[in-house]
């Protein structure tokens, strides 16, 4: 169970699923980049079903890293490859864990990283416990953490039977994105923003996650899940919590997670009457998708935060695939200035906005209003690019894997936040409205989504990197 050892740096990463799709696209690249930065200080034991030799794994790793767009430095990769070893077998078979225990040795401080289907989280952790490989160890698991509130509670109960909460790291790669982390400091370190960040100044909050690609070859995975479970319940609600929480009382992991959990507790359960579902034309033709599927590839909803800071401020979330742009942003609409006699008609001016672009090319925009030479209102934007101003950040999986290895739990979701997130969206799962069709390359079922924000600031076209 938990001890001070759980906060010590690990000397071994046990990577269950090292030959899988996520490792090929993301995590092998992240580990290589940590090696390049001099931040990787452990051996890596890969575990997977493929009957490969170590040489095959090393070649797969090199190809995967190169295919991800990363330039492979031979010297760096040679150092990285020397850290690798490999065990193949069935993760439900005791024989595999006996070999793993022998490879680890009695004094290892391990992070067991499960890049596996959630249905295997419980069996793997129970086997690790039965073979005495959890003392002083940490276990990192990928989302999804359940598929509804009951299953999330069941999974937590099963994992907590053999793990302390301090040992369990729940990965949501959005929590590793630099601008998501930066919002905490932007809000509370800058009085110019902190004084605006409440119901007195903000009239509405919009959070958009748009992807300009469809489900493509992931139909069998995506169809039982849909946009609400895939990105809203986890990514967008975690972002909402960071954007609207109260300041943490200290710098520890639980100080931050106490505040995000507290915020999510204050969010009222979503109302299906304020929920729009969409499905892009052609989704039913994707291999692996049921021909009569009503799975949503677009979700938009309204939420309310029942606390002193945000009471009465509507929160609008939307996420969709096959949309016009790939962009994720948070947009705060500020209240209008009072009407003063010397000003032109204020209704002609856009409300001021604060925009945090999370992806791509993270940055901050202040949308203001100025008077042109003809006496009319014109928009004036003040933009900042984080990469230009703050330097190249760690990529999300670099940051998260490094945090797991050094014992920093700050960027990982805690059990209470996970369950509160499911509580918020559970009514939408229980009483899902019909899906509306929308065209690829659009902004979703706009007529229905516009009704959702009626009486408030309209949906804005997100701030894209090509805008001046």
Automatic annotation (TrEMBL):
Keyword Transcription regulation included in the entry's annotation: no
E.C. number(s) listed in UniProt: 1.1.1.49
Pathway(s) served: Carbohydrate degradation; pentose phosphate pathway; D-ribulose 5-phosphate from D-glucose 6-phosphate (oxidative stage): step 1/3
Organism domain of life: Bacteria
A Pfam family of this chain: G6PD_C
Keywords: Carbohydrate metabolism, Glucose metabolism, NADP, Oxidoreductase
Example GO molecular function: NADP binding
Reactions that this protein is recorded to catalyse: D-glucose 6-phosphate + NADP(+) = 6-phospho-D-glucono-1,5-lactone + NADPH + H(+)
Signal peptide: none
GO CC annotations, alphabetized: cytosol
Domain (Glucose-6-phosphate dehydrogenase NAD-binding): residue spans on this chain: 16-180
Record: active site: 235
Residues binding NADP(+): 49, 90-91, 143
Chain positions recorded as substrate binding sites: 173, 177, 211, 230, 321
EC class name: oxidoreductase
GO biological process: glucose metabolic process; pentose-phosphate shunt, oxidative branch
Domain called Glucose-6-phosphate dehydrogenase C-terminal: residue spans: 185-460
Keyword NADP in record: yes
Purpose of the protein: Catalyzes the oxidation of glucose 6-phosphate to 6-phosphogluconolactone.
UniProt-listed NCBIfam families: PRK12853.1-3, zwf
Family annotation (PANTHER family): GLUCOSE-6-PHOSPHATE 1-DEHYDROGENASE (PTHR23429:SF0), GLUCOSE-6-PHOSPHATE 1-DEHYDROGENASE G6PD (PTHR23429)
Family: Belongs to the glucose-6-phosphate dehydrogenase family.
Protein name: Glucose-6-phosphate 1-dehydrogenase
């Amino acid at each position: 169970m938990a001890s001070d050892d759980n906060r010590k740096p690990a000397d071994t990463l046990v990577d269950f699923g090292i030959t899988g799709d996520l490792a090929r696209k993301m995590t092998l690249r992240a580990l290589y980049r940590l090696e390049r930065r001099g931040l990787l200080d452990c051996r890596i034991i890969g575990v997977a079903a493929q009957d490969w030799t170590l040489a095959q794994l090393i070649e797969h790793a090199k190809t995967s890293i190169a295919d991800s767009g990363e330039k492979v430095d031979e010297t760096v990769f040679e150092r990285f490859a020397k850290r690798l070893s490999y065990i193949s077998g069935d993760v439900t078979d005791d024989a595999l864990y006996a070999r793993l225990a022998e490879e680890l040795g009695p004094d290892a401080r391990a992070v067991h990283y499960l890049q596996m289907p959630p249905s295997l989280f419980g069996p793997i952790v129970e086997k690790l416990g039965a073979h005495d490989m959890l003392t002083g160890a940490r276990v990192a698991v990928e989302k999804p953490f359940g598929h509804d509130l009951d299953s999330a509670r069941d999974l937590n109960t099963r994992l907590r039977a053999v793990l302390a909460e301090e040992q369990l790291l729940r990965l949501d790669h959005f929590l590793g994105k630099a601008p998501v982390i930066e919002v905490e400091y932007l809000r509370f370190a800058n009085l110019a923003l902190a004084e605006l960040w409440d119901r007195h100044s903000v009239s509405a909050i919009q959070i958009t996650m748009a992807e300009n690609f469809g489900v493509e070859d992931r139909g069998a995975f995506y169809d039982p899940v849909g946009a609400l479970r895939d990105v809203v319940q986890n990514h967008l609600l975690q972002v909402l919590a960071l954007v609207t929480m109260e300041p943490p009382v200290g710098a520890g992991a639980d100080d931050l997670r106490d505040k995000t959990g507290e915020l999510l507790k204050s969010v009222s359960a979503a109302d299906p009457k304020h929920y729009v579902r969409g499905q892009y034309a052609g989704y039913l033709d994707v291999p692996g998708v049921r021909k009569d599927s009503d799975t949503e590839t677009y979700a938009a909803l309204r939420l309310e935060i029942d606390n002193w800071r945000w009471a009465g401020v509507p929160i609008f979330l939307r996420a969709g695939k096959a949309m016009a742009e790939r962009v994720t942003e948070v947009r705060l609409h500020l209240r209008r200035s009072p009407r003063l006699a010397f000003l032109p008609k204020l209704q002609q001016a856009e409300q001021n906005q604060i925009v945090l672009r999370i992806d791509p090319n993270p940055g901050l925009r202040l949308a203001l209003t100025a008077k042109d030479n003809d006496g009319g209102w014109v928009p004036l934007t003040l933009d900042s690019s984080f990469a230009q101003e703050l330097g190249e950040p760690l990529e999300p999986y670099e940051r998260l894997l490094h945090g797991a290895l050094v014992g920093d739990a700050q960027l990982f979701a805690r059990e209470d936040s996970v369950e509160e997130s499911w509580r918020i969206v559970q009514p939408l799962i229980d009483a899902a409205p019909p899906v509306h069709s929308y065209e690829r390359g659009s902004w979703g079922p706009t007529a229905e989504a516009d009704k959702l924000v009626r009486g408030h600031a309209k949906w804005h076209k997100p701030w894209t990197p090509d805008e001046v």
